[in-house]
Write a structure and sequence with these properties.
There is one protein chain. The chain is α+β, with helices and mostly antiparallel strands and 124 residues long. The longest helix has 24 residues. Keywords: Signal. This is Surface layer protein A domain-containing protein.
Amino acid sequence: MKKISIVIASAVLALPLAFSAPLAANAAPKTYSYTVSKAITYKKAKVYHTKDATPYVFKGAFMADRPTVSFQAKAKLKAGTTYYVTKALKVQNKAKKNGTFLYVKGNGWIASSKLTAGKFMQAD
């Protein structure tokens, strides 16, 4: 009888924890907004690579009636991999700081500071 009451008590105490965990996992990722100053499309894709880091890839949402873009993190790129860039955006944030985002073909937008020009070469 004592074992049954312990099992019931532990189930009652664990029940609130079971429902609170999924709420934290469903939190929306942070969105970053920028003003677009220049958009560039490359006729031939440019080659870039990542080094040791795994930078975030962003999904871009462009406004139709004003030069504004919102980026939301969606995944990470693999470290030590070659990627092909087809577009570039020169942007400015609210603090008037300039930046550039590159469109990695098949993945999404990434800050240009996180990529290095050229093909990835494995170090000996």
